[in-house]
From TrEMBL:
Domain of life assignment: Bacteria
The organism's taxonomic lineage, starting at the top: Bacteria, Pseudomonadati, Pseudomonadota, Alphaproteobacteria, Hyphomicrobiales
Membrane topology: Peripheral membrane protein
Name of protein: ABC transporter ATP-binding protein
Annotated Gene3D superfamilies: 2.40.50.100, Nucleic acid-binding proteins, P-loop containing nucleotide triphosphate hydrolases
GO biological process, one term: carbohydrate transport
Length: 361
């Protein structure tokens, strides 16, 4: 059963079309992440669901109720913004209680909800403090708590961790995941441009571009079987290698790029795939190095151009078939600029895209 349903949604600002004929179904209790680069329409879509933007056409349902023209307060949602938006003159407890008091909730019920939210978010010792006395991470916990006390079935998060440093983001990411697990049957829709947040938090990810959803799938599918070249290039850090070349399937299927020839008998082609110009994608982390490359279906010798030590691993830049090609090796393995090394990979883990349509072959 859908918890949030967006049907044939259009949104325009004057002549500028931002969202066009967008459809989305979010299941009850699901954690859905809207992922994409700045300007792709992900926050705009979230604001439409929240009722903060009036849509041009289409319908929005929350918990089977048509809320297309309902006010935000009547949609049964809790929202957490990028900015904490806390009242500076109020204590944490006051911030948590403010919306409930305005809604006419009784004192005993307010106290009960605040206690529950504070326990879930581990902010019990902070209730008497004011926002100025809190760290960024603590303020964001309070902002999440203010949404939690509303006791609703759908929570909307608009890049809630983007103002925090990397360590705090990692800590709060885990807390948000735990929170979703504890709040059974609670639906969360989460906007981010951070793919690590998306991959670690989501049950499903909707990757957006130009106001449209490019692919909607679980993180494993998004990462391993991207539907088009854009999705493949957007997901993954460091990003996927693309080699320009051609696929031929007469007799023995193969990819050819100059002197590079890759046997594609193990590659799972999509139905209806055709021959011709293509982009061959293989992720840096899927490439074996040195002795480990010997058993790979495809091997080659490359020259090391640039070495980027990254602690636990090292990113090595080289060229394959005259095109840039990077791979990751264990950070404890010495690699020097200028040396020739053996690499290998399994074509079954590659992703190949039609040159014109950019769709997966």
């Amino acid at each position: 059963m859908a918890s949030v349903s967006v049907k044939n949604l259009f949104l325009s600002f004057g002549e500028v079309k931002v969202l066009q004929d967008l459809n989305l179904e979010v299941g009850r209790g699901e954690f859905l992440v809207l992922l994409g680069s700045s300007g792709c329409g992900k926050s705009t879509l979230l604001n439409c669901i929240a009722g903060l933007l009036d849509i041009s056409d289409g319908q929005i349902f929350i918990s089977d109720k048509n809320v297309t023209w309902e006010e935000p307060k009547d949609r049964g949602i809790g929202m957490v913004f990028q900015s904490y938006a806390l009242y500076p003159q109020m204590t944490v407890e006051g911030n948590l209680a403010f919306g409930l008091r305005n809604a006419g909730v009784g004192r005993a019920e307010i106290a009960k909800r605040i206690k529950q939210a504070a326990e879930l978010l581990h902010i019990e010792p902070l209730l008497k403090r004011k926002p100025a006395q809190l760290s960024g991470g603590q303020r964001q916990r309070v902002a999440i708590g203010r949404a939690l006390v509303r006791d609703v079935d759908v929570f909307l998060f608009d890049e809630p961790l983007s103002n925090l440093d990397a360590k705090l983001r990692a800590e709060l990411r885990v807390e948000i995941k735990r929170l979703h697990q504890q709040l059974e049957n609670t639906t969360m829709i989460y906007v981010t441009h951070d793919q690590i947040e998306a991959l670690t938090l989501a049950d499903r990810i909707a990757i957006m571009r130009g106001g449209a959803i490019q692919q909607l799938a679980d993180p494993h599918t998004i990462y391993n079987r991207p539907i088009n070249k854009y999705v493949a290039g957007f997901i993954g850090s460091p990003s996927i290698n693309f080699l320009d070349g051609a696929v031929t399937r007469d007799g023995k299927p193969r990819f050819t790029s100059g002197e590079v020839v890759v046997d594609l008998e193990r590659y799972p082609f999509e139905d209806g795939s055709s021959d011709g110009a293509c982009a061959f994608g293989v992720r840096p982390e899927h490439i074996a190095f040195g002795d480990a490359a010997a058993d790979s279906p495809f091997t080659a010798e490359v020259r090391v151009d640039v070495v980027e030590p990254m602690g636990s691993d090292t990113l090595v830049w080289s060229k394959l078939g005259g095109q840039d090609f990077r791979f990751r090796v264990d950070g404890q393995i010495p690699v020097s600029t200028g040396e020739n090394v053996r690499i290998g990979f399994d074509p079954a883990r590659a992703s190949i895209f039609d040159k014109k349509t950019e769709l997966r072959l």
